[in-house]
Amino acid sequence: MSELRTAAKADRYLAAEGAVLLIECIVPAIEQIDGSSGMIGSATRKAVEDTAAIVAAAADEPGRHEKRLERIYAAYQDDGYGYLDGIGDLWGNFCGSVDHARSWAEKTLASYRSIRAHNATGYIREIDMCLSAQFFAGQYDAVIELVETETLRMWHHERWKVLALAALDRPLDAIAYAESLRDQRYHYSAIDETCEHILRSIGEEERAYNEYALTQSVSGTYLAHYTALCKRYPNVDKRRVLLDLIARTTGDSGKWFAAANKSNFLDIAVDLAKRGPCDPKVLTRAAQERTETHPEFSLDIALQAIAYFADGRGFDVTSSDIRAAYLAGRTAAERLEQVGNYDDLVNAKVARGNSFILDSLRGLRS
Q1: Nearest to 140, CA basis, from 116, 164, 158
Q2: 30-58 pLDDT tens trace
Q3: Per-residue pLDDT at 37
Q4: Phi (first) and psi of residue 185, to 5 degrees
């Protein structure tokens, strides 16, 4: 993708051709590769998202752009693995202009209706492309009508009605409709994300934060989720954001440790480390980084890491990991002039530890 983005700066038409070629070749190139980890699918979805803008940038040459869209459509139809499913929701973006979007809305709607006439309940891929094209073209009433007449009800489609209502300057109706769908066993986090987006678009930041921002599923790392939330709500105190997230987390509150440590909320970090669960290696690194600037914190965290090691926690733990935690704590104790009773604190943590941790610490303790 970096090559395509670079090419787009010099020749957007050439870049668009390259993006289409990538879409055509990507499934044949990866279809025999084991994608059970999900990494290939995620990378492909991201590539599809990136190509939409590159293709759309060349929409001002109608004839050639239409041919590009035809090729992408063919690749989308031929994909039997679902790698290109994201194209449907992005079809309006790929169209790049209202005229192209209107044309494709008509084409895909006709195709959808023809297939639906012989298939009353099955999933039809054209509906995704049609809804996206209609929305991009500003045909919001048509979006609502299509969603309401579709027999296979899915949040994937209902979302377009919610967005269409908001686009018709009916944001509260959009929120109410989305809320009415919670009993349909749709993914609540997806509903919350859409409602949050609508409220923020009309300046209802506080309501968006309180009602929807905190209930969404964590995607990626907990630190990344916290950072993204702080970025979306710069006027909300970061400490409040972190405490709110922790309060809504059941059983895994320790996973917010990295966020607390990174934000220098060390009192919260210590509390999270003790509550757990935390990776003792992560605690060790945090202790090592702050022995000079915050020795009290480092001492507490290093001792907690040792306690977790003694309990058998951590993945692929080596003697070096255990010794690193011990030495980080000892360095902090020296800074605090508490080295005299440091080993007593360590002994209390490892009293019920297995022979591995005791052997790892042999020669270090007095």
Answers
A1: 164
A2: 777 766 666 777 778 888 888 998 899 88
A3: 62
A4: 65, 30
* pTM: predicted TM-score of the whole model, two decimal places: 0.81
pLDDT at 226 over 80: yes
Question: Residues of the chain with pLDDT > 70: what percent?
Answer: 95
Which residues have a Cβ under 8 Å from the Cβ of 104 and sit 6 or more positions away? 69, 91, 95, 129, 130, 133
3-state secondary structure the chain: CHHHHHHHHHCHHHHHHHHHHHHHHHHHHHCCCCCCCCHHHHHHHHHHHHHHHHHHCCCCCHHHHHHHHHHHHHHHHHCCCCCCCHHHHCHHHHHCCHHHHHHHHHHHHHHHHHHHCCCCCCCCCHHHHHHHHHHHCCCHHHHHHHHHHCCCCCHHHHHHHHHHHHHCCCHHHHHHHHHHCHHHCCCHHHHHHHHHHHHHHCCCHHHHHHHCHHHCCCCCCHHHHHHHHHHHCCCCCHHHHHHHHHHCCCCCHHHHHHHHHHCCCHHHHHHHHHHCCCCHHHHHHHHHHCCCCCHHHHHHHHHHHHHHHHCCCCCCCCHHHHHHHHHHHHHHHHHCCCHHHHHHHHHHHHCCCCHHHHHHHCCCCC
Length of the chain in residues, anyone?
Answer: 366
Q: Token pair for residue 231?
A: 């970025």
Angle at Cα 215 formed by Cα 52 and Cα 253, nearest 5°? 115
**pLDDT of 64:** 93
Domain spans of the chain, in order of start = 1-137, 279-366
Six-digit token pair at 185? 């066993």
